[in-house]
Amino acid sequence: MNKKTSLTPYLFLMPALIVIAVFVLYPIGAVVYYSFTQYNIVTPPVWVGLRNYQQLLHDTVFWQALKHSFIYLLVTPILICLSILLAIVVNRKIPGISAFRALYFVPVVSGSIAVGIAWRLMWDRNGLINGLLLSANMIKEPVQWLAEPAYTLPIAMALTVWLGLGYYMMIFLAGLQNIPEELYDAALIDGCNSWQKHWYVSVPGLRPQIAFVAVISSLAALQVFNEIFTLTGGLGGILNSGVTMVFYLWRKAFRLNQAGMASAIAMILLAITLIFSILNMRLLERGTEQE
Amino acid sequence: MYKKLFALLSILVMASLTLTACGGAATPAPATPEVIEKTVIQTQIVEVTPLPGPNPEAVIQNVEDGAEITLWTFWLSPTFDEYIKSTIARFNEAYPGVTVNWEDHQATFQDDLKNAFAAGNAPDVINLSISEGWVSDYATQGLLLPLDDVVPQDVKDVYFPNLWDQQVVNNAHYQFPWYQGIIVNLVNTKILTDAGLTVDNFPKKIEELPAFCQTIKDKTGTLCDIRLSVNDLLAQMTYEGGVKVISEDGKAFTFDSPEAAAWLQMYVDMVNAGTVDKTALVTDQDRVGLDLFTSGQAAFYNTGPNLIREVRANNPALYGYLGVVPAPVGKSGVVGKGLMALSVKADTKYPNASLALAQFFSNPKSMLEFSKIVAIYPSTPASYDDPFFSMAPVAIEDSAKPYAKDAVSKLADILPTVPHKAEVNEIVLQAVQQALFNGVDPQKALSDAVTQANALLP
């Protein structure tokens, strides 16, 4: 192979490599460095070693945020189950089914900030939820849902599920349409009812999609921010009831001007998401090997 | 020969006779001088080309010729594009040769500005919020230009002294006071009427609020839309509760005094009585509280008259029921501090041009022009001499005009310089939430917060 030929592929790769270096590698390197500094963004960083990490270990709000982020991972199995159910429902050849599929996809293309504000109004003291509950005589006076610490996280999680449902439904729908009809016919011959048909054919057939959705939805859940910010009016919920890792990172960096501390949180979050990604990828590989 | 001579003589004689006959007397009489008196009216057009004189608005000397400076404003575009552009055009007449690049930044203003400072390309002239404490925040980090030695005394005297003396850091001034707001309460008179109240019953003092909210809740079921300044609770307890937040020597925090506990207890009582909207009470965003009022779900909201335009635009039906009352006064006796300022970055390449622009935008003429298009109030006493401010108010947006000069002259920043202000405010916020929503005794919550805050001090 002559010199010209050996350089050609690298030249083709160069634009992408430059973009990745500038927008991914350099920022990651900078965050690693800042996590060992005291840095308020406007004045030069000062090296403090491991102090930020040590302070985080004794920070009760950080542990609360970490706990909330792990609780938030519950959206992943909920999303998988609901998306598969929805995909099975819309995987029928009936007139107008395309309209239903499009309708379920609408939240995905809506901006999460706009949807978050709409949800905040819905859960407001004079919002839709209280209106329905009052008219059904289930409550006697309006509840301030978003001002109750116990409800902040569940409402935010419900919003995340609602926002993502259509997207994951499409992935499972594509998977369902790739499962050969003969397998369902065989299941019928073997005496499976409708429920058993999906349990023994559809779900195993969707294993690659389930693994994929598990990876991306769990990563998204660990990085949730918009839903919390819009629903809690920027506070993070009363008594930090809605504070997650990324929200706490934002608060440290942009409200308290502690970019060094925020970088340390980002590093811990990076480690957690890396572990999750590796575990999920292993799961995906195992599923593929078994097939 | 003789014949020819005779003919010639004859001709000469005839000619002389003819000439004599045509002429006057042979011996002319001496001329008599004639005096004629006439009035002559003469119109003369004189074209005068005057030499250029000093522009009265050009009060900063030695502005660098060819300077190119950047101005950042906070949330003024597109509504006030025309005003900003025309003021820059006037500035160019006063200070020819200076190029001004204007940018407006909105929700991300603070992030953009911090990033710009970090990147070394911060704007030369910056619109900073006094009410949010931005001037002192940036000044304490050495990022703003001290004005004391570079601004002539007669220019300093253009502003209300109380406004000029705001956010002083280490005895240095860092801001030209810009447009001001008068804190008022917008009132939904329909809800008040339903509660058997009128605007005259509106509390004059902060401590009257709990009883007022209880009446409104009992009669109408409506909750009060009161918002704590969650980003600066130290300031709020200073103004409302008359709390001294730090010792004179700056070595210990003192916001766990009986005054502070009483201030917090007032809000705890309102939460326990269920008379306030808890979401609005601790929101980070003014818009949440304003939206609640604008949608007709609250009896009143504490804001500036300039935001009446939001009510008019978003709920014209409520606009008809709108009332405006002065904000209740806290135990400090001071209603509030100023609103907006213009500062110059410390390391600007063109300090004089930047000072000139900051001063120009805040001079009496610019301020007056701005006041005419929106309900803001000048930081310059001279602006109030214009008949615009003495005219009787027509629209409800103008209702604060008659007492605006007096109100603006009493605005003051009474919060002392607080070290680690953002962190201490965060500690106070957590303590306040513990008291409001977790049943912790206010005195204990504040004492714990003081212990934490003192640990930040050297």
Explain what the structure shows.
The complex is a heterodimer of chains A (291) and B (458). Chain A has a domain at 56-114 and 151-290: Orthogonal Bundle (MetI-like fold), CATH 1.10.3720.10. Chain A is globular, with a radius of gyration of 24 Å. Chain A has helices spanning 3-34, 51-57, 60-72, 75-90, 97-109, 112-122, 128-135, 149-177, 181-189, 194-205, 207-222, 226-231, 245-255, 259-290, and strands at 37-38, 46-47. In chain A, 74% of the residues lie in helices and 1% in strands. With 458 residues, chain B is an alpha/beta fold. Chain B has a 5-stranded mixed beta sheet. A 3-stranded antiparallel beta sheet of chain B has the order 6-5-7. In chain B, strand 1 (68-74), helix 2 and strand 2 (99-105) form a beta-alpha-beta unit. Chain B is globular, with a radius of gyration of 37 Å. The interface between A and B is medium-sized, with 25 and 32 residues.
Roughly how many Å apart are the termini of chain B? 147 Å
Helical content of chain A stands at over 70%
CATH class of the largest domain in chain B: Alpha Beta
Taking pLDDT < 50 over at least 5 consecutive residues as the criterion, the unreliable ranges of chain A are none
For the CA atoms, what is the radius of gyration of chain B? 37 Å
Mean pLDDT of chain B: 89
**CATH homologous superfamily annotation of the domain at 56-114 and 151-290 in chain A:** MetI-like
Oligomeric composition of the shown chains? heterodimer
> Greatest interface and its residue counts?
A-B, 25 and 32 residues
Observed structural traits:
heterodimer, A: 291 residues, mainly alpha, MetI-like fold, 14 helices, 74% helix, 1% strand, globular, B: 458 residues, alpha/beta, D-Maltodextrin-Binding Protein, domain 2, 2 domains, five-stranded mixed sheet, three-stranded antiparallel sheet, 20 helices
